[in-house]
Design goal:
Elements (H helix, E strand, L loop, with lengths): L2 E5 L1 H8 L8 H10 L4 E4 L10 H12 L5 E6 L3 H10 L3 E4 L15 H17 L3 E6 L3 H9 L4 E5 L1 H6 L5 H17 L3 E5 L7 H7 L5 E4 L1 H10 L1 H16 L2
Parallel strand pairs: 1-2, 1-8, 2-3, 3-4, 4-5, 5-6, 6-7, 7-8
């Protein structure tokens, strides 16, 4: 089964604009889970421009009381981030190599350079009962290194696919993702995906990358929710994912 994990950073961004508590991330997460999402994601950044440490703790408590629901915390393993993950003990921690000032994640890890320092962290997170995913470009060599350092899953960075969607490059780009996902499964890794997936391009991606464990969507889904409502937006995305599970 492919679960939809809804990234709630944009809900936090709206809340922070008024320095209050509305909209509530806990209420938004509850709506998403009730509508069929399998989990929720937060990416707390050092400048706290959207998700904050308190949000991570609140959603960890919410998910703990929801059987089968997952919490994914993603980010660059700066010391503050690692301390927050240790305390919250999410279902999954997705390690992402973005800089503190990055507007959004824009590339996967170079595990040739960073694998050795990530290995002991992955082992520590495993000891805490946390599943570990690493954010990767669709590169089979990087996939093999992810397995070698002990990751459980990879998250394929899908912005290149989103840019190529409905262009002459679409087939070639999709092929690179298929090969990366196939290699991941061969070396025992689960495959997640996320970044710039939306209602237009998600169906083709899921149809071409079978066996996805998780699709993480934030910006597009929250944008859609402004038009159709949060519960309805989640159901639209789940319908696409479910159709490809049974295909």
């Amino acid at each position: 089964m492919t679960i939809l994990s809804v990234n709630l950073n944009k809900v936090a961004l709206v809340r922070n604009a008024r320095l209050g508590h509305s909209p509530s991330l806990v209420e938004a997460a509850s709506l998403c889970l009730q509508a069929g999402a399998g989990g929720v994601t937060l990416h707390p950044r050092p400048d706290q421009r959207h998700a904050r440490p308190g949000d991570v703790r609140d959603l960890a408590a919410l998910v703990k009381d929801r059987s089968g629901a997952e919490l994914n915390i993603e980010g660059n393993p700066f010391p503050e981030f690692v301390a927050l993950v240790r305390a919250a003990k999410p279902t999954q921690c997705t390690l992402v190599p973005d800089s503190a000032a990055a507007l959004t994640s824009d590339h996967g890890w170079d595990l040739t350079a960073d694998g050795a320092r990530l290995r002991p962290l992955i082992a520590e997170l495993h000891d805490l009962g946390i599943r570990v995913s690493v954010f990767l470009d669709p590169d089979t060599e990087q996939v093999e290194q992810a397995a070698a350092i002990g990751a459980d899953r990879i998250e394929l960075y899908t912005e290149p696919y989103a840019r190529a969607f409905e262009t002459e490059q679409e087939d070639a780009v999709l092929s690179s993702f298929r090969h990366a996902a196939q290699r991941a499964r061969q070396v025992g890794l689960g495959v997640n995906a996320g970044h710039d997936l939306n209602l237009k391009n998600l169906d083709l991606f899921c149809a071409n990358i079978p066996g996805l464990c998780e699709v993480s969507i934030g910006h597009a889904l929250i944008s859609d929710a402004l038009e159709v409502g949060l519960e309805s937006a989640v159901r639209h995305y789940r319908r696409i994912i479910s159709a490809n599970e049974s295909a």
